[in-house]
Amino acid sequence: MSTRPDRKAPGASTGRVVLSENEIRRALRRVAHELLERNKGADDLVLLGIPRRGATLAARLAEAIAEVEGVHVPTGALDVTMYRDDLRLQPIRTAAPTQIPPAGIDDAVVVLVDDVLFHGRTVRAALDAIGDLGRPRAVRLAVLIDRGHRDLPIRADHVGKNLPTALRERVHVSLVEDDGIDEVRIVDAPAADTSEVTS
């Protein structure tokens, strides 16, 4: 039975594809190897994805680590909606559930996982959210795409692809679990569209 939903991400089928299904798979496997190498194994690792596609990517990284290491790394989802600094500037958002592994995150090496790193404000919000949940030994950041244009001094530890972009462009990450297809597209946003879909 297919688990592919019918809907597609905004921007799907427009713009140009910068990462295909196979390239996304290879990028995630490389990031999984990097995580294991830096951590010297999977001990104490916890993967927390930022909904929604970050949570999907965290689950895929956990699968890739299990294939390499034979160990299931605890995963969870970290909603950052109430920690954002642009709440009053954006339409009302529905918060997604935060799901932390039963053992918690104290003294763990937490790897935040997101689809796109842009201004860095979502990651800042995630760091604030983590502070309310526990005290990890270290927090690292893994993203599928780093498109630059940072507003804050935040840097990813593990990057699937560095993708230089213009500010007018938007990056759409589509994943089978969420959108029915695996691909990353770069799209020219309409001149009147100043909203931000990536972080």
Spatial order of the strands in the main sheet? 3-2-4-5-6
CA distance, first residue to last residue: 33 Å
Mean pLDDT: 89
Structural class: alpha/beta
Number of helices: 4
Order of helices and strands: EHEHEEHEEEHE
Instruction: Classify the beta-strand content into a percent band.
Output: 15-25%
The top-level CATH class is Alpha Beta
What is the molecular shape?
globular
Brief overview, please?
The protein is built from four helices and eight strands, in the order βαβαββαβββαβ. It is of the alpha/beta class and 199 residues long. The strands form two sheets. It has a five-stranded parallel beta sheet, with helices on both faces. Strands 1-8-7 form a three-stranded antiparallel beta sheet.
Task: Give a structural overview.
The protein has four helices and eight strands, in the order E-H-E-H-E-E-H-E-E-E-H-E. Residues 1-8 and 194-198 have low confidence and may be disordered. The protein has a single domain, classed as Rossmann fold. Helix 1 (21-39) crosses helix 2. It has helices at 21-39, 53-69, 121-131, 176-179; strands at residues 16-19, 45-49, 75-77, 109-117, 138-146, 158-162, 169-174, 183-188. The strands form two sheets. Strands 3-2-4-5-6 form a five-stranded parallel β-sheet, with helices on both faces. The longest helix is centred in the N-terminal third of the chain and has 19 residues, at 21-39. The protein has 199 residues and is α/β, with parallel strands linked by helices. Strand 2 (45-49), helix 2 (53-69) and strand 3 (75-77) form a beta-alpha-beta unit. Helices cover 26% and strands 24% of the residues. The radius of gyration is 16 Å and the shape is globular.
